[in-house]
UniProtKB/TrEMBL annotation:
GO terms for molecular function: FAD binding; oxidoreductase activity, acting on paired donors, with incorporation or reduction of molecular oxygen, NAD(P)H as one donor, and incorporation of one atom of oxygen. This is FAD-binding domain-containing protein. Keywords: FAD, Flavoprotein. The keyword Glycosyltransferase does not apply.
Length: 526
């Protein structure tokens, strides 16, 4: 298996393949992870659940400079050192620790830290993955049963590698997407933005608002965001600017932009800048033959809501277990057709949600225009607008947990914010804490799991054994799962989504249910 691109999505694909005992080679031009640009900073609770399957969640929390309890707030202010207008609390899934919804709340952590944690895991002696760094894929020759890929190193020397399948996680300029003949559909927003990494030893002591995950600056002429990367004086900022603020080379004064957000001309050192435009793009296909794309190669999200990187991790898990099932011989190649069928609609939902979050900006800034009066009434009015407009952006459990795959998947959210778990085919398995103190998810097998009494599961187990389908049966009356699932049997896929739910069935029907499940098809009893 060849994975093109060693960012978080490509590494996640290799991690998932390794989780199922499949060897892979990851091709990545960068020999070392760079910490200059944080890029994604929000790891959602759902992504942390998936990391937990690999034993990686605890490592990421240990390496994150900002502990989960450091702050769960988003502050809206006139400037970072100016007046607070309002704040959202318990944001980004950070307040879910100890809840019944999940065993893993979200985590604020810069993308390079996540990448390095995955690299370290894949470099362990027992890993089935090989990281081939300092190389990029430049050509793809798909044959009857393999793909021959030409690699090029930094000196222009070429070599080839042959793989059963290729996963393209090589970003917006994806060579794999080009080789597939796939194209982006969508648009880019016209206003330019710039991400800035900077150091300031003084800033932390001058902020009057207390700790926050993000500080949103409500300056209609020059809005932006600022946040901490660590407690040692390294910060990130996102600023917008006017075209007339660019010099003849197209550059902008990053220091001046940061000072404008801070509201004071503090001594700062700009470490890195990264100009960008918000893009809402989705590839017209996610697969062509033995070539697949995932993450930014398949879809580009605006950053509003923090869904882009998390959607990519979901792609990697969905595709990874299916490739492993086919290569291991217990699922037919038809299963791979379900990758695009399942993940492209999810990408569309998250791209649309991010775009909608971005469209609330003008209303927020219009309300902020009245803040120059500095009156309590003006502040209250602006605060009310912000709370209404931005709630869904930072409280999105319904999107994070509630999106399902099949026609049977039941809506688990009314507005994307609230989440009411429903046990239905296609949905993520509802989480619960067991009397033992364990998470239900920790009792699931690495492949398929059937939850229910063993005498009802026997028909499934017989068919699974005859056809080599890995199936674990979770039958422990002391766990109280019969009551939790209303005395129904629950067939759970490797990605923690429900493949089927219903009552006892005869052998022939159990066989049909399993055969549908390993093809990525869904069944549910009325």
């Amino acid at each position: 298996m060849l994975v093109v691109g060693g960012g978080p999505v490509g590494l996640a694909a290799a991690m998932e393949l390794d989780h199922h005992g499949i060897a892979s080679v990851v091709v990545e031009p960068r020999e070392h992870v760079s910490y200059l640009r944080p890029r994604a900073k929000t790891t959602s609770p759902r992504t942390m659940e998936l990391f937990r399957r690999w034993g990686l969640a605890a490592t990421i929390r240990e390496r994150a400079p900002l502990h989960i309890d450091w702050s769960k707030d988003i502050v809206f202010c006139t400037t970072v050192t100016g007046r607070e207008v309002t704040r959202l609390t318990g944001t980004l899934g950070l307040a879910l620790a100890g809840s019944d919804v999940t065993a893993e709340p979200g985590q604020q952590v810069a993308q390079p830290i996540v990448e390095q944690a995955m690299r370290d895991a894949l470099n362990r002696p027992e890993s089935n993955a090989t990281l081939l760094l300092g190389r990029r894929a430049v050509a793809f020759d798909e044959r009857e049963s393999t793909v021959v890929v030409t690699l090029e190193d930094e000196h222009g020397a070429t070599s080839t590698v042959e793989a059963d399948y290729v996963v393209g996680a090589d970003g917006p300029r994806s060579a794999v997407r080009t080789a597939m003949g796939a194209v982006y559909e969508g648009s880019s927003l016209p206003r330019p933005n710039i991400s800035i990494t900077f150091e300031s030893a003084e800033l932390g002591d001058l902020i009057p608002h207390g700790n926050a995950v993000q500080y949103w600056v409500l300056n209609p002429a020059a809005p932006g965001l600022v946040g901490r990367l660590n407690l040692s004086g390294t910060w990130w900022a996102i600023a917008t600017y006017r075209p007339d603020e660019q010099d003849d080379d197209g550059d902008v004064d990053a220091t001046a932009l940061v000072h404008r957000l801070l509201g004071r001309e503090l001594p700062i050192t700009v470490i890195a800048t990264d100009p960008w435009r918000a893009r809402t793009l989705i590839a017209d296909r996610f697969r062509n033959g033995r070539l697949f794309i995932a993450g930014d190669a398949a879809h580009q999200n605006p950053p509003w809501g923090g869904h882009g990187y998390n959607t990519g991790i979901g792609d990697a898990i969905n595709l990874g277990w299916k490739l492993a099932a086919v290569v291991n011989g217990w699922a037919p190649p038809d299963l791979l057709d379900s990758y695009e069928a399942e993940r492209r609609p999810i990408a569309q939902r998250f791209v649309a949600a991010a775009a909608e979050n971005g469209r609330t900006g003008p209303a927020v800034l219009a309300a902020a225009a009245g803040l120059t009066a500095a009156t309590a009434a003006a502040t209250d009015e602006a605060a009310a607008v912000i709370q209404e407009a931005k709630r869904i952006e930072f409280h999105s459990d319904g999107l994070v947990f509630g999106l399902g795959y099949s026609e049977y998947a039941e809506v688990q959210t009314t507005n994307g914010s609230d989440y009411v778990p429903v046990a239905a085919a296609g949905n993520r398995l509802p989480h619960t804490w067991l009397p033992t103190g364990q998470s239900l998810f920790d009792r699931l097998g690495p492949e398929f799991t059937l939850i229910g009494p063993s005498w009802h599961a026997a028909a499934f187990a017989r068919h699974a054994e005859r056809h080599g389908i890995p199936l674990a049966v979770l039958d422990d009356p002391s766990l109280g799962l019969d009551a939790f699932f209303s005395d129904r049997l629950v067939l759970v896929r490797p990605d923690q989504h429900i493949a089927w739910i219903g009552g006892p069935v005869p052998d022939a029907e159990a066989a049909r249910i399993l055969d549908h499940a390993i093809r990525g098809e869904w069944r549910q009893q009325p």
